[in-house]
Amino acid sequence: MDGRRVGRSGLRVSRLGLGTMTWGRDTDAEAAAAQLESFVTAGGTFVDTSNVYGDGKAEEMLGSLVPVVVPRSSIVLGTTTVGVGGGRRALLDALDATLVRLGTDHVDLWQVHGFDTGVPYEETATALQIAVDSGRAGYIGLSGQNAWQAATLSAHLGTGRYRVVSLEVEYSLVERSAEDAILPAAAVHDWGVLGWAPLGRGVLTGKYRHGTPPDSRGASAHFARYVGKHRTERAARIVEATVTAAQGLGCTPLAVACAWARDRPGIASVVLGARDAGQLTAALAAEELILPAEIRAALDEVSDPFDAPI
């Protein structure tokens, strides 16, 4: 699997990443182990988790599998801290708790989610600097922030060893709003963009074209609203275009959607979520696909967020 540098940094990740949002909730330890082994065997390196996935169980599960299933040195470990605000002590305590759950003394990429207007920007920046100085985090990234928020915090961190290297954002054929400000800001500030939900929360696989499969996330009480966001008339048109492209290329809609997001300007990696190794294997097949220019142009047009009706 090809790798890419994250922004203007020395951090290198596989251009397809493994997400763990379902781990500890819909994905048990055995299935998670199969996913991780399959991903690393395919050449994947970037594994993305968070303190809120499964209320911490995803990090615990990942910590139990590394280095038992794969060596720690074979993965680039990224985690996102959510829901603790921007206070220095709260952020560092949350990171320490994450490290305990992961069973490691450091993460390669620590991303902080959200923007706390009640805390001075320099205090949040200080927490991130301490994490780097202490060796708990190799690189710093941001998540869940708009362009001006990310730029403000980035300015307080500077362009040296503490610089922001990544910005994680939802990005897919059905969710291109990041192109309005976030992607241009990332290009100016040399942030590598990590795109989550490249399959439109599952909608772009085509599985919801004729209803809700009983074994899908859309049928899950926990994920129904998560998937439902992209079950719109506009999304349906994009899905049909994706299915048509896949038929012409002799591949799956999943591969088309993933390849489209993976090769957009500024994208360092797209993070794939799967409930089992079979779903992940199907997603990893996108690594071999290069979309012809005419198909990419057609998908660009049908999914244009600034031209299509809402």
From TrEMBL:
An annotated GO cellular component of this protein is:
cytosol
UniProt-recorded name of the protein: Aldo/keto reductase
At the top level of its lineage, which domain of life is listed? Bacteria
Entries under Pfam families matching the protein: Aldo_ket_red (PF00248)
InterPro entries recorded for this chain? AKR_Detox_Biosynth, NAD(P)_OxRdtase_dom_sf, NADP_OxRdtase_dom
Coiled-coil zones: none
- NADP-dependent oxidoreductase domain spans which residues? 15-303
